[in-house]
Amino acid sequence: MSGTDRFMELQKTLTEINQKYTYFLMAAVGAAVGFSITQTSKAPLSWWFLPLAFALFLWGTSFVFGCVTLQLVVRMFNLSIAGLDMSAGRNPICKHDPAAIEIGVATLKKEFDKENARATLFQRWQFYLFILGVAFFIMWHIIEMWRRIPENMCLWV
């Protein structure tokens, strides 16, 4: 296996890992939302639920960021395919003109790098928003536990 083949195999593996990570976070968000709904299905609505509402908002935003990440990855694959077609002279605009191919490939690479930076940013924030949602859920849960303590019970004995 040549160095180029190894590089391509590593690149493919890295892409698969990133996609699985994005899907994992999206599934975790779905599980968190579902769990929070089962925990509150019979509870009357009150101001005490604001931390939970914020957690749900953060989880929803995290899910959307995961979707955007996947859309950007698809766009990056399309840009890669267009670059390969252009390099092989299969682009109807550039055809076999070396100067046009060089400019076209450079333009596509710049666009690819921009989309890659955006995908990385969205994936990073997908994780941060998920963790922040977990923190707000835990805060809400502690508040709910605190509210259930009987008034005549002493906590510091």
UniProtKB/TrEMBL annotation:
Source domain of life: Bacteria
Keyword Transmembrane helix on entry: yes
Transmembrane residue ranges: 21-41, 47-74, 125-143
Keyword entries, A-Z: Membrane, Transmembrane, Transmembrane helix
Protein name, per record: Uncharacterized protein
Organism: Alcaligenes ammonioxydans
